[in-house]
From TrEMBL:
Residues 34-52 have a biased composition (Basic and acidic residues). GO terms for biological process: L-histidine biosynthetic process. Residues 25-60 are annotated as: Disordered. It comes from Chloropicon primus. It comes from the Eukaryota. Its EC number is 4.2.1.19. Pfam families: IGPD (PF00475). Keywords: Amino-acid biosynthesis, Histidine biosynthesis, Lyase. This is Imidazoleglycerol-phosphate dehydratase. InterPro entries: IGPD_sf, ImidazoleglycerolP_deHydtase, ImidazoleglycerP_deHydtase_CS, Ribosomal_Su5_D2-typ_SF. The keyword Amino-acid biosynthesis applies.
Length: 273
C-alpha cells in the first residue's frame, strides 16, 4: 500500500477571509487582544468572550500591565470564531483553561474523535459545530475548522505574555510514537513528517492530517514540528499525533509563574504585528 508521506510546508489556503495566512513569508495577520495570564494562578478572573470578526484582524496592541494586582483586570482565555464561506459554515469555541470538555459535531466523525483528543489531553474546552460540503469530501470542513481553531487560539492567548511559549511532548499509542514540538512564537511554520500507511481512516482522508496542522499553524502563529518516531497502524499514528499535540499545546499555553507576566521573548513580542 502506498504510504502517505506528508511533509507539510506552508500551503496557501484556498479562499476567503483576510485573516487567513498569505503564502509569502508564511505570516498570518492574527489579532491580539486582551490579557493572558493563566487562570490557575489568579483569582477573581473576569470572564469575557471575544467575538471574532472573521475578516478583519485587529491590530490593536493591548495594554496589559504585567504587574496589575493578582486577579484584577484579567480575562478568561476564551475565544470563539464563526466562519462562513460557500463551502462551509463553522463555529469554533475554545477555552484554554478548560476541563477537557469536547462538544464537537463537525460532520466528520473521525475529526470529532481527534478534537476530543485535543480537549481531553490538553484540558481545553472545545466546541465545534460545522456544516460543510462533505458530500464532496472532508477537505473544506477539516481545513476550515483548523483555520478557525487557530484563530481562536491566537485570540484567546492575546499578547501571549507570561506563558511558557514552548511545548514538547512525545505520545505513544501502542506501537505508534509521535513527537510534537511547538513554539507559540507568532510565526506560522509547520513541518509534519508522518508516514501514515492507509489513505483513509473510516472515510477520513489521512492526507488531511498534515493539512489540518498547517492550517492551524497558519492562523494561530505557531511553529510546529511533528515527527513520527514509530508506528504501523494509521489510527494509532494519527491519534498519538493529536494527543502529543494536545499535551504540547497545554504546556506551551500554561502560565510560567517565574515569568511574572512578561513576554517570553528577547524581542519583547510574540504576536505578528
Ligand atoms: Mn481512537
Amino acid at each position: 500500500m502506498q504510504g502517505v508521506r506528508a511533509r507539510a510546508g506552508a500551503t496557501a489556503v484556498a479562499c476567503g477571509a483576510g485573516a487567513r495566512a498569505s503564502r509569502p513569508g508564511r505570516r498570518a495577520a492574527t489579532s491580539c487582544r486582551g490579557a493572558d495570564r493563566h487562570r490557575d494562578y489568579t483569582e477573581g478572573v473576569r470572564p469575557r468572550e471575544r467575538r471574532s470578526g472573521l475578516v478583519q484582524a485587529s491590530t490593536e496592541i493591548p495594554s496589559v500591565s504585567a504587574n496589575e494586582g493578582e486577579g484584577e483586570g484579567l480575562e478568561a482565555r476564551v475565544a470563539f470564531v464563526e466562519r462562513k464561506t460557500k463551502e462551509t459554515s463553522v463555529f469554533v469555541k475554545l477555552d484554554i483553561d478548560g476541563t477537557g470538555k469536547c462538544d464537537c459535531d463537525s460532520g466528520v466523525p473521525f475529526l470529532d474523535h481527534m478534537l476530543d483528543q485535543i480537549a481531553s489531553h490538553g484540558l481545553f474546552d472545545i466546541e465545534v459545530k460545522a456544516e460543510g460540503d462533505t458530500w464532496i469530501d472532508d477537505h473544506h470542513t477539516t481545513e476550515d475548522i483548523a483555520l478557525a481553531f487557530g484563530q481562536c487560539l491566537s485570540r484567546a492567548l492575546g499578547t501571549r505574555a507570561g506563558i511558557y511559549r514552548f511545548g514538547d511532548f512525545c505520545a505513544p499509542l501502542d506501537e505508534a510514537l509521535i513527537h510534537v514540538v511547538m513554539d507559540l512564537s507568532g510565526r506560522p511554520s509547520c513541518e509534519c513528517d508522518l508516514e501514515i500507511p492507509s489513505e483513509r481512516i473510516g472515510t477520513f482522508q489521512t492526507e488531511m492530517v498534515p493539512h489540518f496542522f498547517e492550517s492551524l499553524s497558519n492562523t494561530s502563529g505557531m511553529t510546529l514540528h511533528i515527527r513520527q518516531l514509530n508506528g504501523k497502524n494509521s489510527h494509532h499514528i494519527v491519534e498519538a499525533t493529536f494527543k502529543a499535540f494536545a499535551r504540547a499545546l497545554r504546556q506551551a499555553c500554561s502560565y510560567d509563574p517565574r515569568r511574572k507576566g512578561m513576554v517570553a521573548s528577547s524581542k519583547g513580542v510574540l504576536t505578528q504585528q
